[in-house]
From TrEMBL:
TM segment ranges: none
Pathway, per record: Carbohydrate degradation; L-rhamnose degradation; glycerone phosphate from L-rhamnose: step 1/3
Protein name in the entry: L-rhamnose isomerase
InterPro entries in the record: L-rhamnose_isomerase, Rhamnose_isomerase, Xyl_isomerase-like_sf
Keyword Cytoplasm found: yes
């Protein structure tokens, strides 16, 4: 039996198994095919970007490794991105930082960045049929050296970062309008302190004022932009105090919605909580009070270490909870990691495919039967079904989906990437 016939036969068998539980696989695949995953620009070049001097990681960000072949300009970068896209079967978006624009004028600073610096990205996205998301870049800058940006008591520094985030938000609006789909404007800031502050309230009050100014400057349609608030427990160098904690962002989200300020939603990053906490458990709490949310899929080991996503238990838990809660249509999906110890294109590919496979597996789960057992108070049956459903043939459906999209099945893409690595990446002079 050849490859295509084997995959087709396994898929037909899987459809029969799922059909026995009342799951219409073809309907699931049709819906799954329309859900994009936003992939992180920072994985492609170790968060260097295309500012004249290059930003590089700082302010709680650490990129490990120096694998050869890093792209040194936008053309090389998009070449790598397209190579990864050739292995990814589903829809994608590219999650950009503001330092990934192009043609910055001499003497310009981040508070003056504008849509013209992202015109090449918008044109490329239109050509390739992908979406774009945006992030303000508040690290790796002289005004970020204190560890405080929009919570900085120095009014000049604080206003600089407010202007920067306002400009990136307006860039996001132009992207959303040009591409005809939502551009998520993500607002992670590294603000915090290494040791115990004497006045925790002061910096959170300043951050609240800053966000009011950022989101309040202009009302933007939710057809184009959602303002994602990304809380974090701690980061390197700010172990004792993070201004933008989960409690702060939850409270600010409620405040902003009540006052009609911006289009705020929560970004639940799997690596931004205590290692014993479950980010998945927070979805149902957040979505009682919000219309949308962002799920940042990452793999944190011991802390928010941003390892490449794999199809592990925590990733599957996150996806299962989204589906079981009935908020799939309200979720934005993105991956968040950076690893320079392995081939960067491979990292994009592994993490995105793993995220997609976990999402598809969750969508295929016979959730209706789990809900019914719980409603009947039959917790024995509920647990039995939860365990049995983990062994359903989701991978056969995934392989069929890859084949139907004319993308690599299983490990087939790696040999092609190794050749690209040899012929293109290893010949670059910027590694």
């Amino acid at each position: 039996m050849n490859r295509e016939a084997r995959i087709q036969q396994a898929y037909e068998n899987a459809k029969e198994v799922y059909g026995g539980y009342g799951v219409e696989v073809e309907t699931i695949l049709e819906k799954f095919d329309g859900i994009p995953v936003s992939i992180p620009c920072w994985q492609g070049d170790d968060i260097v970007g295309f500012e004249p001097k290059g930003a590089g990681a700082s302010g709680g960000l650490t990129v490990t490794g120096n694998y050869p072949g890093r792209p040194g300009n936008p053309e090389e970068y998009r070449m790598d991105l397209e190579k990864s896209m050739s292995y990814i079967p589903g829809r994608i978006k590219v999650n950009l930082h503001s330092i990934y624009g192009e043609n910055y004028e001499a003497g310009i600073d981040r508070d003056e960045y504008a849509s013209r610096h992202f015109s090449n990205w918008i044109a490329w996205a239109k050509e390739k049929g992908v979406g774009l998301d945006m992030n303000a870049t508040t690290f790796s800058h002289p005004y970020a050296e204190s560890g405080l940006t929009i919570s900085n008591p120095d009014e000049n520094i604080r206003q600089f970062w407010i202007r920067h985030m306002q400009s990136v938000r307006e860039i996001s609006e132009d992207i959303g309008r040009e591409l005809g789909q939502v551009c998520v404007f993500n607002t992670w800031v590294q603000d915090g302190m290494k040791d115990m502050p004497a006045n925790r309230m002061k910096y959170r009050e300043l951050m609240k004022q800053s966000f009011d100014e950022i989101f309040g400057k202009k009302q933007i349609s939710t057809d184009y932009v959602y303002d994602a608030l990304e809380p974090k427990l701690f980061a390197v160098g700010v172990e004792s105090y993070t201004v933008g904690s989960n409690d702060f962002y939850l409270s600010y989200h409620g405040h902003a919605r009540a006052k009609g300020i911006g289009n705020t939603i929560l970004n639940l990053d799997m690596g931004h909580f205590h290692c014993e906490e479950s980010a998945a458990d927070k979805i149902s709490a957040v979505m009682l009070f919000s219309d949308r949310f962002m799920a940042h899929i990452t793999r944190g080991l011991r802390w928010d270490s941003d390892h490449v996503v794999i199809n592990d238990e925590k990733t599957n838990d996150m996806m299962r909870e989204i589906v079981r809660c009935g908020v799939l249509d309200q979720a934005f999906f993105g991956t968040d990691y950076f690893d320079a110890s392995i081939n960067r294109v491979a990292a994009w590919t592994i993490g995105t495919r793993a995220t997609q496979r976990a999402l598809l597996t969750a969508m295929l789960e016979p959730v209706r039967l789990l809900h019914r057992a719980e409603e009947d108070g039959d917790y024995t049956k509920r647990l039995m079904l939860m365990d049995e459903f983990r062994s359903l043939p989701a991978n056969a459906v995934w392989e069929y989906y890859c084949l139907s999209k004319e993308k690599a099945v299983a490990t087939e893409w790696l040999a092609d990437l190794k050749q690209y690595e040899k012929d293109v990446m290893f010949k670059r002079n910027n590694s």
